[in-house]
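Recap for those who missed Tuesday's class. We walked through two folding examples back to back. For each one, the amino acid string is listed first and its predicted structure tokens come directly after. Nothing is annotated here on purpose, so try labeling regions yourself before you check the end of the notes.
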Amino acid sequence: MNRKILLLLVVFLLYLSFVSAENRNDNDSKQFIQTRDTRTYWFEPDVTYNVRDAAVGNVVGTVSGGTAVPAMHFNDSVSSDGYRWTRVQYNNNSNRWMQYDPDYVNLYGDCSGQGCPILKIDSQSARMRESEINGDTIITLYPSTTSNTNFWVLYLSEEKYSDHYRWMYVSDATHEGWVQYDPDLMHLAN
């Protein structure tokens, strides 16, 4: 009697896996790729800024102050000139580079999913809060925390809040909340 029940259970589970595979959307992987490509981050210098053919490369053009260009990739490492570089789209070419100097460049935007830039804490710590400015602390992020876990930056405000900082909404597999953006303590990377 127990063998019949076990056999029926195995047949039922095989049926469910077959139905699941048959009904699976063939576009699942395409949707993931599309989610990764739907990020909209902007790189907007306050002054006229050089555009280069590579990080620390040859100048191929300029972007006027106040003009935003799409940010495509955020370098994690600091280059020989002491700056991090961002790959941008410039004149329909998505392989151009601009130096990221937070004193002269406003970086902002939003995205969804695992294609978002990752928050990296460089020194000290940052608190993830339930809401901007005075929200209760959810967890404290340390350099070791963000090097071991991907905290995706889903939103980075364009304007500063009343505390004179811009805020970003971040998420990992367990937590999500608001972090005060301080480019002296943290950076974004892909």
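Example two. Treat it independently of the first, because the proteins are unrelated.
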Amino acid sequence: MPVPSLPDVVASKSPADSKSLAASMEPVAFGVLGTDPNVVFVRSNAPFFLRHHRKNWRISTTLEDQVCLAGITHHVLQPGGKGVRTRSKNEEDDAGYRDSVRNHMDKGWSYLNPMDEIAPEMLPEGVKPGGYCRALECIDPLSGVRGKRYVEAWDVPQINDDDDEAQPFTFDLAKYELWLRFLVESGQVSPPSPAVVARHIKRVNRHRDRIKPLNLDPEIRREWMSRRDAVVAAYTNAKAITKLPQGTQVPMPGEDAIAAEQAAQIVRLREIAEQAMARADDAEARLAKGAKAEEAAAAKKAKAAANKVEAAAKKAAAKKAKGTRQRKSPKPKAKT
């Protein structure tokens, strides 16, 4: 997938004329900052991309059947974090984060396009159709500076009845999980590989083994074990969120799949080790080159000091010899 663009890209950076700039100057109404009902009192932040790593999966909690869903995280486009930098005024809009996104793609991350419209049935009530990144007009509670608060489409602000409390938000998890399921059904996110499923099942089984020896109430034990059984079933039946035909059986990962995944990991680790060794050799060569230069400079300096000492010694010897000759051959006294 190509590197996506920012959700709020300005079509033209240059105003039509100076009158347009003059007309954009809005009068400031001091003392009435909180009268706008569509402005929330919260600090501004930076926009973000949503992304998924091939090993990051979770189990649904609101869908009718527990299924395996993609684990989604933020890549905040704030300069100074995750390789994002401040772009110069002559660079393109995505120059500040383009390299950062591509580097993370090379590490196995897949980015979701913020311009893809989400179906209304997957959005909270009252939220307009659009992408996953939404902007709210906000006012910083401390400084009073206006800005934008970027949130996910499912993170809806609520009425704040208490001025002393922070701005409340409600996250619609049920609609969010419908969208997560749609991501895999539509092919935007690839389903988990057999090796990844095996790894998650192994982790859940370790949790089960730790619960077994505990002295628990039978009812609590049954509840805990049933939860983990459902999680194992969800990972095992990962076909529930794929495009496979009805009744298609997904083979459980065997030793060959796990061995192939481990072999691929070994190859990647060897590549990383080779790159590290190359960098170390390069650094050692630069260090040796710098050490030789330092040694040459020190030798030159020592030679200059030795020459200086030798010159001073010759000068002192010449002066001493001159004094000796003067003592051996005193001038004759004048006759009276």
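Answers for example two:
Residues 239-255 have pLDDT under 50 and may be disordered.
The chain has three domains: 36-190, 192-253, 255-284.
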